[in-house]
Amino acid sequence: MTDARRLELVHDLTANYSDRQGLRIVPIGLAVLAQALPQPAWELGGLELKHYLLIAAVFGYSIIGSFYARRFGKVEELPYPGASVGLQMILVLVILALAITADVVAEPPVFVSGLLIAFWIAVIAWPARSVRAQYLGIAILLMLVSLLPVTGISRERVGLIYGLVFGSALVISGIVDHILFTRLLREPAHD
Amino acid sequence: MTSQPPFEQLAGLDRLVHEPARMSIMTALAACRSAEFLFLQRLTGLSKGNLSSHLSKLEEGELVSIEKTFEGKIPRTTVTITAAGRKQIEQHWKSLDRLRKQATGWKPEKENDK
Questions:
Q1: If you measure CA to CA, which chain A residue comes closest to B80?
Q2: Closest Cα to residue A11, out of B94, B17, B89, B59?
Q3: Which residues are within 8 A (CB) of B55 and not within 5 positions of it... i.e. 6 or more apart?
Q4: Which chain A residue has the Cα nearest residue B20?
């Protein structure tokens, strides 16, 4: 790695510190995978195992964040330019809810909500394309899966394939991000 | 400055910022609001003593500010880039980029070959 390339990676890592803590998205990826896999007939308090896995993933994101802070130190990021992250999340969730409704009610020839998620990943990944090109690859893969109903594959099956691809991609990308993270933030020397 | 050969301009670069560990520190600090000592130690791979020495030089040059606090019983050292520091590292990056472009197209004069 050249010095200039290393400094580019340092700048990207520091500017997007919480986002580059790859292990944080691994539980989310596992929870997405679990939604697509066959579930054991187990229920507690009206919730199935896959629902508990989603809740665990949300807590896992925060707990793993604390691990990174203790082991690698904290960074206060610069405020996000444009609309706040919270407002953007609300907007994305509203649009996603509309897309899911369109998928269920109108049953269009493509998987609209899947396409939307893929497009969102591509938009987020574009500024860091020289550092994390794998996310653009994931977006393209998810777009292709979203088009599968056109080939005659049932929408239920496409939903399962989408969950398997998306979940696996999140797990693998999270691990790749973590490896890059630990390469840049190495064990310090001792006095 | 631009009429000088690129290698002479290289000698004129600000050494306070150009030293590799300090350039890493300044590049990271320019990309955030503030960072903890532990993060900068991980980033540079330096020992506590060496990193403190580099940070003191940057603080003396008024390029960073250092704040020491306690979180419970745990001491926390937070480093923030100053406005002057941000301007300095941005200018330094521009100088390096300009030098890189000039060095790519630079050819020695005939007198220098003799």
A1: A76
A2: B89
A3: B25, B37, B40, B64, B66, B79
A4: A3
Contact A116, A147 (CB under 8 A): no
Indicate yes or no: CB of A10 within 8 angstroms of CB of B27.
yes
Cα A113–chain centre separation: 15
Among residues 149-188 of chain A, which lie with CB inside 8 Å of chain B?
184-188
Cα distance between residue A105 and residue A96, in whole Å: 14
Helix and strand element counts for chain A (H, E)? 7, 3
Q: HEC states along B43-111?
A: HHCCCHHHHHHHHHHHHHCCCEEEEEEEECCEEEEEEEECHHHHHHHHHHHHHHHHHHHHHHHCCCCHH
Q: Tell me the pLDDT tens digit for each residue of A154-185.
A: 888 998 999 999 999 999 999 999 999 999 99
Residue with token string 């056109």: A150
Q: Is B40 on the interface with A (CB under 8 A)?
A: yes
Whether A2 and chain B come into contact, CB under 8 Å, resolves to no
Q: pTM value?
A: 0.82
Please tell me whether the interface predicted TM-score (ipTM) of this complex is above 0.90: no
Size of interface A-B (CB pairs under 8 A): 78
CA distance B1 to chain A (A): 23
Chain A touched by B13 (CB under 8 Å): no
Q: Is there a contact between B31 and A191 if contact means CB atoms under 8 Å apart? A: no
Supply A136's token pair.
Answer: 């653009």
Read off the amino acid at residue A64.
Answer: I
φ, ψ at A47 (rounded to 5°)? -115, 140
Per-residue pLDDT tens over the stretch A50-62: 888 889 999 999 9
